[in-house]
Design the sequence.
């Protein structure tokens, strides 16, 4: 983890973050029907490393929330649920290869690079569409999505947004970056 404040996680912030997550959980019950906050909290407290990662998601504007429970792995799944693509993760290209290919006006980072540094995975197209079933997301912004290998090998990358009450998945050159495009991540706990 390269984020400077990743290891600085005092007990006060630990408790504050649990409170933030609980309030968000209770406010958005449609995202996690039939899940119990006390079980989620117990899992978070038993996995402080994952709680630190959720803190990074929160600190970069992701507003993480529980969206599902994976019965096969016995893990809760958190997605970034901010209404728009997380503010502190915008103006970035897709991956390191794209970042290195830019000769001028390089962005500060890449979506894949930031996700790896944070310890999360970028949502794929299927997960992004699932997220869009839980609310209205990216109506003014867009989010890079995990891109199929064949598209990436051809120089492209995919992103999603929601306009006109419809989810759009589209493409761009992986080296492109825009002030309104970031990425959304997930973590299993």
Sequence:
């Amino acid at each position: 983890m390269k984020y400077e404040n990743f290891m600085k996680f005092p007990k006060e912030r630990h408790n504050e973050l649990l409170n933030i997550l609980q309030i968000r959980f209770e406010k958005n019950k449609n995202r996690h029907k039939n899940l119990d906050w006390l079980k989620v909290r117990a899992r978070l407290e038993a996995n402080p490393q994952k709680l630190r990662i959720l803190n990074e998601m929160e600190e970069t504007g992701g507003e993480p929330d529980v969206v599902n429970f994976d019965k096969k792995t016995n893990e809760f799944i958190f997605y970034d649920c901010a209404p728009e693509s997380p503010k502190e993760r915008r103006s970035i290209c897709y991956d390191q290869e794209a970042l290195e290919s830019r000769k001028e006006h390089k962005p500060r980072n890449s979506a894949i690079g930031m996700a790896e540094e944070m310890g999360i995975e970028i949502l794929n197209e299927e997960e992004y569409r699932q997220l869009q079933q839980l609310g209205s997301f990216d109506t003014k912004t867009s989010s890079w999505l995990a891109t199929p290998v064949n598209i990436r090998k051809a120089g492209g990358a995919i992103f999603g947004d929601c306009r006109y009450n419809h989810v759009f998945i589209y493409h761009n050159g992986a080296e492109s970056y825009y002030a309104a495009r970031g990425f959304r991540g997930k973590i299993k706990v």
Observations:
- The helical segments are 11-27, 37-46, 48-59, 96-101, 111-118, 125-132, 149-153.
- The longest helix spans residues 11-27.
- Confidence is low (pLDDT under 50) at residues 1-6.
- Residues 7 and 49 are 9 Å apart (CA to CA).
